[in-house]
Amino acid sequence: MSTGPVCTGSAAPDMGDIGTYYGLLRRVHEVLKPQRYLEIGVHRGHSLALVRPETHAVGVDPEPMVEDPPDNAVIVPATSDDFFANPDLFGLLGGPVDLVFVDGLHLYEQALRDVANVERQSNPHGFILIHDCLPIDAETSTREQNSMIWSGDVWKVVVALRRHRPDLTVTTVDVEPTGLAIVSGLDPDNTVLFDRYTEIVDELHDLTFEDLRTAGRSTMLNVISDDWETVKPLLTFNRDSSD
Asked: pTM score > 0.85 for this model?
């Protein structure tokens, strides 16, 4: 079950530079102007604060620590599994989701389940953003937190999606501290991640940071730089032509 993220401490983040995941997330909100936004793992609410006034936002976290949430955001104190299992809770969004930020428990099997669950409820022209997909080193990508910056093994979700869902477009942007993956081409009717969930989890279980380092992060995770002119087309090509 998903818990709030533990990544970079409690210092106020820099929201302006696209070189950080906060900066990129802010820019994504500006470009997409989502009607409905879902955030899994709100923690202290820094990323939730980036929602635009016209966006209806729902944040999910079993132990939220948000002191001053946006007026247009509803925070649900629950695990993501419980949230998706309860139609009344998911109904708080009011319809298909346009933008999702997955930043919950830093374990690949949970993040994969979150992606599978949210795609089923997404706008086909929407986007899923996954935090912590570009690990720094072996120490910060362990399955137990041993350092202040901790990405866990969420990067395996990108590997899983690229292997088992080639219909999706999955790109990892090299933003500090631990990357942000952009997923588009969503298909709410696709059941591959549900049908093969156990198989996929087992397949990736023994994959290590050393395997990632040997194969090359760019190759396995489809990494691009934090250059806005490179990133922006990923947010526009799949949008409805009427937008």
From this structure: yes
